[in-house]
Every structure is written in structure tokens, then in C-alpha cells.
Amino acid sequence: MWLFLTILLAVSHHALGTNPGLESVITQKALEYAKQVGASLAQEQLGGLAIPDITGSISIFPFGKVDYSLSGMHVVDFNLPEPEVGFAEEAGVKIGISGMSVAIHGTWRDRYHLIRDSGSFDLAVYGLTVSVLVGVGSDSTGHLIVSSANCDASVADLEVTLHGSTRWLYKPFTNKIKDLAHKQLNRKLCPMISEYIDGLEPLLQKINVSYQYDPYVVFEFPLIHPPAIGTSNMEFDCKGEFYSVEHRKEFPFTPELFQLHDQNHMVSVGLSQSSANSAGFAYHSAGVLWIRLTDSMIPKVSPIRLNTTSFESFVPELPKRYPDMLMLVDLFSSQQPLITFQPDNVTAQAFGSAKVYVILPNATLVPVFVLDICVSFSAKLFMSGLKLTGSMTLNNVSLNLASSELGPFQTKSMENVIRAGIHLVVLPKVNAKLKRGIPLPATPKVSLVNPVLKVNQGFVMLATDISYSP
Q1: Are 353 and 334 in contact (CB under 8 A)?
Q2: What are the tens digits of pLDDT across the range 363-375?
Q3: Which of 44-53, 247-256, 428-437, 454-463 has the highest mean pLDDT?
Q4: What is the DSSP letter of 223?
Q5: Which residues contact 455 (CB under 8 A, 6 or more apart)?
Q6: What angle is formed at CA 30 by the lines to CA 29 and CA 35, rounded to 5 degrees?
Q7: For a Cys-Cys bond, which of 168, 301, 321, 448 suits 464, CB 3.0-4.6 Å?
Q8: Rounded to 5 degrees, what angle do the CA atoms 274, 275, 277 make?
Q9: What percentage of the chain's residues is helix, strand, coil (to nearest 5)?
Q10: Given this model, what pLDDT does residue 470 score?
Q11: What's the average model confidence in pLDDT over 178-192?
């Protein structure tokens, strides 16, 4: 039972808006798999399981008080029927085991006045039945919480066989031990189960509800309300928003409402368009979306160099004022990038400004003009095994002169060069990486089985089965 509950929790493991940015759903199929894993682990670990010693005294008519101890107890055999698991609507997860039997062997000792005796014993428990409702909710920090909402447990019968030399005390002592064990088991089973479930709380509190992706951005995914529990699945609605570590700002848009409908896989996870865009907002807020381009960074095969002579065809006035001098470009985001999810397609737009400088012989930087740039891409994303693959194409490039120290000039020819550079240099590198595939993040002991990625209107969904390796 304990192991099964642990596996169940491992499998289900995911200004606040009313809609989630990240949503996860586990289905009955996941519970059935958790049941199999839990039963398998129980088969491995229940055999030889040690049981705490029991000491006490009992009154046996007509002898009076007899002190006893039961020690060295361990499970030597057991029969574990297949558990029943399911969702209890608006409550939690129900777990039932019926007809379990356990065989235990140990050592007994007794003392009656000056008489002492000892031996071994065998205890057989029959018809062990347990029915538990595990309540599932969330706390104020967005962590998952569980509780024993209801429990019913009983032992139908048991047998005790003592092996020893106290013949005259044998039968009454055996009967007393049997009655005592029967009452204790029926009385303590549910408190033991509740204690175990309550003991999971510190473990759940240790599960992170935020992940620092890199030094600049953190992804936060606390539950925004208790899980929604239906008759065939459980839904976890999480915040799912990226933040700048140094310059925390709330994303100014509420996530779009979306719903995961996949019931064929154990687990499905959906990320909203707004959640994805909050990443661009976070990076833009952090001020890290910029790069300084120098001539040494331009591929040697490029006919266009970052010097005033090479730019004569674009800006005729430039080499006249600054003949044969190197240039550099500070390229930075002017607003957050925008991502759009449409059926089977992802569109990304990047907005930036390019501030162009001439490097004087004394290394002084002289600003000469500023360009506004907008680039749009489309991407197709797929799953290949356990890797994210796909391809990217260029939709459009627009270039406009924002300001100039050299007077006005046309930017169309420069725009064509940038477009050609993206086609010839940028896209081949990006598509080569996408073709090789990007491995999905690994989770210890849990691997994905036949994952499927689907881009929908306003959100992207990953549906998968899982495999647990202890």
C-alpha cells in the first residue's frame, strides 16, 4: 500500500490569472500503470520485510498475568491481489485491496513468575481488506497536498501457531495472542495508513514549483487552485510564467483558455501561447537580448564586410566621411518577441534595433545611423523518438531607417542582403540542429514513452505514456 501511494504521487508529478499558462492532465491509464508499478515494487520489498517487536502482558485465567514478547518478525510469504484504483470526483484518488494474505514468522518469549519459556511462531493473516480515499488539494504556495480523507481496513481472520515447550500454557496463550493481534490489526491499520499519507507532506513541499532556466530567467509553475478531479482524469492548472530574475515584472496578458482532451495517453501537458510569450517578455525585461557584431564575426566567405568601403553601395555618404574604417553594430530587442501557435505551425516575430557605429583610428565609436528591424519565422515541430525536431523557414524581413547622422538613404538593398544572409547562413545552422533533434528534459527514474507533440490554436500539447525504473 505504501509503495503504491508513493508511485502514484511520482506519476502525477507538475498577479495570478484565472486561466492557467501550464496545464497537465493524468488519466485512468496513468493510475493503472501506477498500480502495476506499485504492485511490482511491493512484490520485491514485502518479502523479508521486518516488523517491529511487540511486548506486553496478558491475563490468562486461571494463571494470572503472563509477560510476553514477539520479536524477529518478518514476512515470509504473501498474496497481493491486484489493487483497484480510480478517481473519486471532486475528492481525490480511491485505492482498494481486497483479500490480501500475509505469512509472518518470528520468535516468542513468555514469563510466568519464575517460569520462562521461548520458541518460534507462525502468524497467518487472511482476508486483509483496505479501502482508502486519498484527498488531493493545494496549499497557499501552490504545492500539491494529500490527506487521508477516508479509510476502512479490516482483517477477516488469522491463525497463530506457537512452537515451544510450555504445553500447559500453549492453547490459552495462543488464543490470547490471536485475539490481541486481530484487535490490534483492525484498530491500527487505518491510523498507520493515515500516518504514512500525512508523512508525504514534507516530500511534496520539497517539490520545486519554480525552475531557474538560466542566470536570467526563472519559470514558475505553482498550482493556481486545487486539482480538478473528474471520473476519468485529474487536471492540474499551473501558473506557467517566465520572469526576469533581476527585473521581475508581471506579463501584461492573461493566458488564453485552453483544454486538453487527450485520454489515450497517461499524461498530457499543455503550454499556452501567453506562457511562451512571457519568456520573451522576461528576456526583454532582463535586457539580455542584445549582441555586438564586429567584422571578425562575419563569415570569411561573405562579400559584405563591416567596414565603410563595403557599405558604399548602401550608404554612399558613409565612406566619403569615414574612408576605409571598420564598423560595429549593436543589435538589441526593441520590444519582446512574439510567438503565435496555430494548428501545426509556430510563428515567431522578433523586433529589434541596430545601432551602427564607425570605429575611428583612435578607437572612438561614432554613431552613424539606427535601423529598425522586424523578422518573422515559421516553424514546424515534431517528436522523433524522445527528441524535439522540426524545420524553420523565413517569412519576412523588414528594415526601416529610424535615424541617421548621414542624411536619409534607402534600406531596400540592405534588407535584401540581410534576407539572403538569413537564408544562406542562419537557417541552415538552425535547421541542422533541429534535424538532429533536441532531447527533452530528463526526469530521474521516469522516462517518456512514444511522446506526441501537437501544436494547436493558442497552445502546444505534449501527450505521452511514461515508464518508471526504480
Answers
A1: yes
A2: 999 999 999 999 9
A3: 454-463
A4: B
A5: 341, 342, 343, 344, 345, 346, 381
A6: 100
A7: 448
A8: 60
A9: 25, 50, 25
A10: 73
A11: 81
The mean pLDDT value for 106-111 works out to: 84
pLDDT at 442 (0 to 100): 67
d(CA 153, CA 137): 24
**Cβ count within 10 A of residue 226:** 16
> Which pTM was predicted?
0.82
Backbone CA torsion sign across 137, 271, 447, 202: negative
CATH superfamily membership of 209-468: Bactericidal permeability-increasing protein; domain 2 (3.15.20.10)
The answer, yes or no, to whether residue 215 has pLDDT greater than 80, is yes
Average pLDDT over residues 443-463: 90
Which amino acid is residue 209, in one-letter code? V
Nearest to 48 by CA among 29, 75, 70, 22: 75
- What is 27-205's CATH superfamily? Bactericidal permeability-increasing protein; domain 1 (3.15.10.10)
- Per-domain residue ranges for the chain? 27-205, 209-468
